[in-house]
Amino acid sequence: MRLTIKEEPKGWHNHLNGGGLGADTAVVESMAYVGENARVSGNARVSGNAWVYGDAWVYGDARVYGNAWVSGDAWVYGDARVYGNAHVYGNARVYGDAWVSGDARVSGDAWVSNNARVSGDARVSGDAQVYGDIWETSPLYIQGSCHVLTNSRKGYIQIGCHERTFAYWKKHYKAIGRMEGYTPEQIKEYGHLIDLFIAIGK
């Protein structure tokens, strides 16, 4: 159940610009917008012209500032930073020490975590998971017939729940494919996709 502007639980207050809930421990500057169903908690800070709205949640030691937007059911937490003109929306998660900045977009069910840096015009979307490194352009992401392949950090491919180096995948993809129950045709498909990642990925 969502709390409305009329309900202020102990330790929380409704932000004047939008009516969303802010924990008394969090800092939300007056120019920032926190929509009615959005929450800011922990030691999080929302400042500048930033917007947090929809059912979004910013918590932990996260920072959202500049002209950034966090919306939908997105969560920004840990020590994450979202700033500039960046947008995080859908069911996306940005956490750990990750930064999303510039005109970058993180959407869908995508995750950006650890020490990843997504900036410029980069787009991370769908089920993509980016764990580290600096991305000024969108990381390579392909939906195969069984699992998604993501250039999760430089020199790595994540296929399903397995994240390995390019070299490891090149050497072991057949064995992993058999272990995961792939057909011979699917193993061949993923071999070609791994070659494509090695050729044009980062």
Task: Provide key terms for this protein.
202 residues, alpha/beta, seven-stranded parallel beta sheet
Kindly describe this structure:
The chain is α/β, with parallel strands linked by helices and 202 residues long. It folds into two domains: 12-139, UDP N-Acetylglucosamine Acyltransferase, domain 1 (3 Solenoid); 143-200, no CATH class. It has helices spanning 166-179, 184-200, and strands at 12-14, 21-23, 27-28, 33-34, 39-40, 45-46, 51-52, 57-58, 63-64, 69-70, 75-76, 81-82, 87-88, 93-94, 99-100, 105-106, 111-112, 117-118, 123-124, 129-130, 134-135, 141-143, 148-153, 156-159, 162-165. The chain has an eight-stranded mixed sheet, with no helix packed on it. The chain has a seven-stranded parallel sheet with strand order 3-6-9-12-15-18-21, with no helix packed on it. A six-stranded parallel sheet has the order 4-7-10-13-16-19, with no helix packed on it. The radius of gyration is 19 Å and the shape is elongated.
